[in-house]
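User: Working on a comparison across species. This one is FAD/NAD(P)-binding domain-containing protein from Didymosphaeria variabile. Can you predict its structure so I can line it up against the others?
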Amino acid sequence: MASEYEILLFGGGPAGLSAAASIVRQDHKTVLFDSGKYRNSLSKHMHTMPSWDHQDPQAFREKSVKDFERYGSITVEKVEIETLKQREDGLFEATGGGRTWTGKKVILATGVEDIYPNIPGYAECWVSGIFHCLYCHGWEEKGNPSAGMLAEGDTGAVVPALHFARQALRMVDNVTLYTNGNEQLAGELKAALDAAPAPMTVNSKKITKLVKAPERARITLHFDDGTSITEAFLAHKPKTKLRGDLAQQLGCALSPMQTVVVNPPFNQTSIKGVFAAGDCSSPMQTITGALNSGTCTGGGAPLQIQAETYKQRAIF
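Assistant: Here's the predicted structure for FAD/NAD(P)-binding domain-containing protein from Didymosphaeria variabile:
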């Protein structure tokens, strides 16, 4: 037998928790599904977060859930949802772990996951030596002589590569742009630096492996010619994909960047009654951005329910 709720909320990260923090203030019976998989699961510190600077994101999640207890309207299920559909009666039905839940509205805050490049050792250096956002990580490495910037994937073009390298220069004296064997990009970067000089160099050697050095965030790059270089850290934003396929199961429209298309400010998707928040719905993937969109969806879903309860027109 299905457990019945008003709102089915998917995702226990900042966006989902922010949505729940709004929903409880309107007392809607909600179930929050937390798979326990988080993009920042390896991070031990959060930054750019007022009142939570340099603190553990796991503690943030635990404290957020604890705050819901006094309301009594949120149920947290530690389960990974396998299927999600809209039934003929209009309700949404989720199944996972042999159980079923139904709800009037859906909020997707499932996030994204990073697709690591095919470089041995990359995964082992992720977060500890490779930083995808130099606002989230990097300040602690100030004062080092040099850092690296991997120009590959989403950063494998002149403009994004130099964009990341300029940020890294706020922490170190010189940045080397590594193109990992891409000679064409190396030439384009050298031409750009000739036209507009900066304390940056270009290295086009093929990387054979990455090894985390024991000190601080230092990382050693090994090349196919047998040489190696150790940097203070390596900046790189890998490609991402939606975590899970719940949006696809529902048939939500996706953007060219493969995020869920939403209509601000309440972030309803292409399907009425389905909302999306956080990294899964925006290319600007930050904690504070996730909190904002979570608040918006946590307002939109209740407002739609309230209007429909009295057969009135909603504000959106």
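For your comparison, note: The chain has seven helices and 19 strands.

User: Helpful, thanks.
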